[in-house]
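Why does this matter for the project? Reviewers at the last site visit asked to see concrete outputs rather than summary tables. In response, this paragraph embeds two records directly. Each consists of the residue sequence and, immediately after it, the corresponding structure tokens. Nothing has been edited or filtered.
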Amino acid sequence: MLISKLDLTGLKCPMPALKTRKALKSLTPGERLEVHCTDPLSVIDIPNLIRETGDSVEITERAERRIVFLIKKAGASSLLEDRFGSLSLRSLCPYTK
């Protein structure tokens, strides 16, 4: 399991969310991104970004001045499973055998 690290300490809104979005685009499904922030608004911005992208925040850690997110990049199949469950085309279409 590959975990990429992204140090965004010192950056202010909206830069942590923008740089996180850019970093997520380069990951393959299943990879994880560990994001370190100091901007207090990142606790709002990054979870909202993750909802938009369909990825998932596995861990959020908040210390006195540092916020850490561990984000898992979703794959196309997991996005479909989240939306439709484990249905297959065969169960939906009476014409497939």
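We now turn to the second protein, recorded in exactly the same manner.
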Amino acid sequence: MTNITFGGFAMAKKLSVTIELEMTVPDDWQIIETTDGIGVLKIAPDQFLDLTFEPMITSDVEGSWTNAVSEDFMEDLMDMVESESVAYELKQTLN
């Protein structure tokens, strides 16, 4: 068995993150699938939106957060992701 490390530290824990997002969106937004079967939102002609995992970092937990990470950090982080699931559902609301 190979030991997995990140920043020189051995991996010893499993992290599970649940993110649920509810939005009120324009009526003309649609859920479509890519040729790979991945669901995305069509938000305008020739404009699509994919809501997915994006890491944010900071050196001050009360300060500003950014997604400006090094390519190496992002590659290492993504190597740790064992699975990701994104599901879209549009429900008609009454106005």
